[in-house]
């Protein structure tokens, strides 16, 4: 069989072409992050390493929580890393420079020291920071819109850029708290920013993610939806910063509002997941004549637990290679269903649709072939057929069982 790059097919890019733009973007973002950390080191005293540790500590579980939203069709790791690094590098350094310049040359000279800081935090910083964080999402809409298949994708990329920004920003807050008030003040700041409201920045930028996702998957609202999303992000951010100056009562009101919005976002993701499942049930049977999918395989593909069991069974039967083949099959089938979603909404060019469809079908065929060709793992009691179709019909039923 011809060799293909499954990742390239799934991501819709040309195989073998080095991601020059991605490498350049990661390099620039990394240099900006180093520069921002250098500013913290130069401006702080002994609290930098404490702040760095506390800021990084909650990031892995928060990333895992964000990625759990999109288990049917996981986003490319390289794109997720780029979004995170953009938030931690370009957005942070840009916000540091522009917010400082705004304070020194605009708000403080006009409104005075105290009011100037309030105006900058409530009105200036949200506009600057959300624009810089949202820039990477607008870039994806412009350059990689086919990578955004729905609201869940927009929310995940927004969460990654927001978590990167929040991590770097928290280093500064924790460092200043430790240097100014010692362990007691540091504890209070960590409880507020690290435990009570760890998702504030991802939640703000999620509004931009929703707008960008709508524009990527609909024919209308190409400008209005992203602009409305960015405005919503700025308003939420401004409300939070403004409430912070009114004490715990104001923060409590905004925190309840943000919690309600978070609940709505979870509902949106759940509804969209059910919609994806319905499309799997509707469109994949159309390809039954190819032999690549059976009704039993569709039942496996529509359920996350069944998918997990299928991957586990594949590894048991044929080892890691068979497990990878099963993953490629599942992801290609899901992408095929999402491709029909774009066609339904009129945002898929017919020629691109046909090319993309054929490449995904080819990947499904190659993945199934690779699975069936994988030498079985020697066992005293070898397992039977697929757990979702032990006697068939299934494209993954081993040849020896088909003859029985």
UniProtKB/TrEMBL annotation:
Region (Disordered): 374-404
Keyword Nucleotidyltransferase recorded: no
Coiled coil feature spans: none
InterPro entries to which the protein is assigned, alphabetical: PrsW (IPR026898)
Protein name: RsiW-degrading membrane proteinase PrsW (M82 family)
Keyword set, alphabetical order: Membrane, Transmembrane, Transmembrane helix
Top-level lineage group: Bacteria
Pfam families with a match to the protein in the record: PrsW-protease (PF13367)
Membrane-spanning intervals of the chain: 20-42, 48-69, 81-106, 118-143, 155-175, 195-216, 223-240, 252-271
Pro residues bias spans: 375-390
